[in-house]
Amino acid sequence: MRVDGIALPSSKQYTIAWIAPLTCDLAAASAMLDQEHAPPSNFHPNPHDKNSYTWGRMGEHNIVITTLPAGLHGTAAAAVTASRLAASLPHIDTCVLVGGAGAIPKISTVKDENGADSEYIDERRDIRLGDVVVSRPDEATGGVVQYDIGKAKKGRTWQRTGHLNAPPQELLGALRKVQATHCRGRSKMPMLLAEMWERNPHMAAASCASSPSFTHQGVENDKLFKSAYSHADDDRDCEGCCSPAQQVIRPPRDTTDPKVHLGVIASGSTFVRDSFTRSKLAASTGADCHCYETEAAGVMLQFPCLVIRGIHNYADCHKSDRWQPYASATAAACAKEILLHVTPKKWEPTFSWSDIFFLSQAFCNVNEQNKRVHSLRSTSQPPALCFPSFPNRDVDLALKQVGYGIPQDRRTDAWSKVQDEIDRHSTSVFSTVRDGGHAQTTCQTGYDRQAEGHATYRG
């Protein structure tokens, strides 16, 4: 159930970053949230951070989503966005990059009975529009290769240089679980897409021809043409100017549900929209690349992340934007399914030593306070009478300024540090626990460490 407007007390409760490069990627990511949040109460971004953030919960994970600035793209813009996120939320070490890409088809050429060349898709890598490619390391790469950094060598040859890190192990482990689940025919992606459309009916309806919906666009609109066949008229779509006889032969599928392909992703700042360039660049990487995209190499400089890409074109001159929203949706559904298999990280408030000293001053007065509390607790006076000596205003002020939440359990590491610092000064320990419109104050003095006095006042 979605409850919008909730604000968690600390930005440290968000443990996963999700980078959605384009508008449709951001829309799909936000629609996959189970609960949307207001910004955390204590979030103060780095002064140089110009990112915009969306906060929410997905399964048991609190997730922060960001996007690239409108009109910017490529590895440089992605690197800046990722570095700003890292500066404002340095505790986050798990990241997914989720968006669209252009597939690199694997095509075999066979002579037909008339001696003409016929092109067939390699069924071992039959990637269709709306399918998803997820970066997976192999023996030579970390799952992503940057195709536009290398050496131009003698003989007009090109040697790729550099190496990008592999995704975090926890994400690769979750990916393995998803892969096994799909092998059993139990993909959650169709269900997650259906839930998204139900919660956001506008996303399932195309407003006009230039604004397609986030749903499957029809098998008849998924056309892969032969590598040597160019788009006949840039002002018309393929249906109006391209010959069906020039399509690559592919076997029909029995479902339109998206499939997930694991392999190497080629990343760079160049938009690839030509089949010859598509093949040449892929060959220059020395890797068996599955698709092209334009952000991963930049993000990987800041975050070792898992790259998840929905396919909306074949990186050729027949490219259109019709499939882009649906590809964003399938990539987001795949990312959510993977994250649902990641073990949630337990968050516990932590305090710096300066915070601990500040709290110790607010929580405690010296021995005069101890003597008064001990005296009151030794008589038949009602416990509430010990309340006036408690520095509740100082406590409230301290907690608000620290912004780490309220240490309501002395067993936590944070409270242990506070208690140790207080004990060093032979003072009392005070903890305040908020509950609705009330606050309860517990004292534990140096005279009697086993007994506790309770005072409750209406806040």
TrEMBL record:
Annotated Gene Ontology MF terms? catalytic activity
| Biological process per Gene Ontology, one example term | nucleoside metabolic process
Q: Which domain of life is it from?
A: Eukaryota
The molecule here is called: Nucleoside phosphorylase domain-containing protein
